[in-house]
Amino acid sequence: MPAFPVPFIALLITTALAAMVFGGWLGAYAVRRWQAPLRNAWLRVRRFIAIPGRGSRGDGSLAEDLEAAIVRDELFLVHQPKMRARTDDVEAVETLVRWRHATRGLIGPNDFIGLAEERGEIRRITEWVICQTIVEQRSLAACGHALTFNVNISARVLADRDFAEWALATVREASGPIGFEITETAMIADPEGALRNIHLFADAGIKIAIDDYGAGLSSLAYLKQLPAHELKIDRMFISSLSSSHRDPLLVRSTIDLAHALDMEVTAEGVDSPAALALLKVMGCDVIQGFLIATPMPLGELRAFLDARANTGSDGIPLGFNWLRRAGDRK
Ligand code: C2E
Ligand code: MG
Ligand code: MG
């Protein structure tokens, strides 16, 4: 057997190692680059296959149906206006997902987001929500209403680096500002990963809101670390604002705390004129709740915004009606 010179063997090993490293890098790049297009293509094939009569159409378990909900176009978005307390202007909405099930009817997110998280469907749903939000935001802007759209980001995807990269690239295409609402409990599973992604989002100009503040394990340590722009006080503190002795104190001190940390405060679940009046006195920045408007599909949102722009028009939703009458009395 011929003896190979040592430099030749060294060159052989180096070439093999370089091929492994480059191959691995190329493979990882290819997976990242083609993952989304391939998944979309697969969804289109599935949609073609999922013609009526094939597969479970409402008669299977909710979990099975959830897997096909996107492909069957059963998810849709509603948007709840957020009103600036000082000016009564609506500058933003919170976007919320709904499921129109073929046989069970309308299903709210509280009844399927948890299921989606358990079944590993939440990333697909979140991505669908973000893409659809961008489409609807652009369509509303074309009608003369350029608003910020805030979407809810599940704890299950918050720390996912792949998701973060996808979200950053996708949100870059939006016609206006997109915000992400996260809960503090979303930080618990993987605080490092979640914080890294939240910083990436904030650096890219995505406004971060801390959702349901006060309902979970609120920690000053997290609050200080998060590059959040907005703090949303949970509606359990707002609903009894005018009847409880302690809640006004808690809300007032939370507003002061948030302002000290350079955050805006949104009150969630404002459903009475008394609560609105108190919140305005306390210096709350943004009001969200059934008093202003319930969550509504894009067409109704457009009508709602048109009606606000033109105070003389009829058919104004209830929340706005009340505000107009309140304004008339002034
Ligand atoms: P959230 O993010 O805190 O959204 C606010 C919820 O409060 C919405 O319920 C809204 O309809 C309700 N709400 C607003 N104003 C009032 C009020 O004055 N009174 C009362 N009683 N309720 C009010 P919804 O749409 O059922 O959503 C429930 C939760 O589901 C959301 O809470 C959010 O955590 C989650 N969710 C909704 N859409 C999505 C989504 O696209 N992705 C994820 N991951 N979660 C979502
Ligand atoms: Mg929210
Ligand atoms: Mg909330």
What does this protein structure show overall?
The chain has 330 residues and is of the alpha/beta class. The protein has one domain: TIM Barrel, CATH 3.20.20.450. The protein is built from 13 helices and nine strands. The chain has an eight-stranded mixed barrel with strand order 1-2-4-5-6-7-8-9, surrounded by four helices. β2 and β3 (105-107) form a beta hairpin. It is globular, with a radius of gyration of 24 Å. Bound molecules: ligand C2E and magnesium ion (2 copies). Residues 94, 152, 181, 211 line the site of one magnesium ion.
CATH architecture: Alpha-Beta Barrel
CATH class: Alpha Beta
The DSSP helix count reads: 13
Determine Rg (CA atoms, Å).
24 Å
* Assembly classification: single chain
C-alpha geometry: globular
Overall number of strands: 9
In N-to-C order, the SSE pattern is HHEEEHHEHHEHEHEHHEHEHH
The assigned structural class equals: alpha/beta
Mean pLDDT, nearest integer? Answer: 85
Question: What is the number of domains?
Answer: 1
Given as residue ranges, the uncertain stretches (5+ residues, pLDDT < 50) are 47-59, 312-330
* Helical amount: 40-55%
- CATH topology name, in short, is TIM Barrel
Biggest sheet strand order reads 1-2-4-5-6-7-8-9
Distance between the termini: 103 Å
Q: Give the cofactors and ligands.
A: ligand C2E, magnesium ion
| CATH homologous superfamily classification | EAL domain
Largest sheet composition: 8 strands, mixed, barrel
